[in-house]
Amino acid sequence: MSERRIPVIEIFGPTVQGEGRVIGRKTMFVRTSGCDYRCAWCDSAFTWDGTGKDDIRLLTAGEVIGELTEKGGEFAHVTLSGGNPALLPQLGELIDRLHAQGAEVALETQGSKWQEWFRSVDELTLSPKPPSSGMETDWAALDGIVGKLENAGRSFSLKVVVFDEADLDYAAAVHARYASAPFYLQAGNGRLGETEPARLLPYLLERYEWLIGTVMADARFRKVHVLPQLHTWVWGNKKGV
Predict the structure, then answer these.
(1) N or C: which end of the chain has fewer CB within 10 A?
(2) pTM of the model
(3) How far apart are CA 114 and CA 208, in angstroms?
(4) Shortest CA distance to 84 belongs to which of 188, 171, 140, 9?
(5) Per residue in 128-174, pLDDT tens?
(6) Mind listing the domains of the chain with CATH numbers?
(7) Strand runs (DSSP E) across the chain, as ranges?
């Protein structure tokens, strides 16, 4: 049986991871196409809205690794991104081959769909989407994923992007529901059309300062990390960084 190919829209790096538990980590990126959500503020909508369809390539795991090596040399860390990479059962083969080369694998998903290869991801982030996204959380699906990971003794973290007070209340509910998991809050970026980092940074800094001040005064958040979206501070809303 021939290997099932992966719909890849970007491979780039090395660069720093801009979000979540491994923020600042030197990493290579593989961005897949397709998503089951349509978040209002998605910063990678080109993976699902049709604008990036001409960039999609169907690659084998070996071809992905070959391109990672060509771009990054002897890499030690790979981030699988989207869209929602959890839609792709064939990523298990890629993860196994990356591990065989000594590379660690990070992945973020909204927690809407389980894949058996979740158990093999070194740094798995579940990022359910708050009210500002316009999406509804499937709590049964998310509970099931968390339960399977906990039963398997696999570590994972949770991250919620926050734009406003309603998002903050949602984040508090997520934090309380999965109290034992490492928890990250990230300031939202509501200016996706701004391409100049120097003009974007004051806004991002203001949003980050607001989130810090609000969370520090909120007793619901006792074990929490408050993060910026690091890559936007440096490169703005540029792709491929």
Answers:
(1) N
(2) 0.94
(3) 32
(4) 9
(5) 999 999 999 999 999 999 999 999 999 999 999 999 999 999 999 99
(6) 6-235 (3.20.20.70)
(7) 6-16, 26-32, 57-59, 77-81, 104-109, 123-126, 157-162, 183-187, 225-227
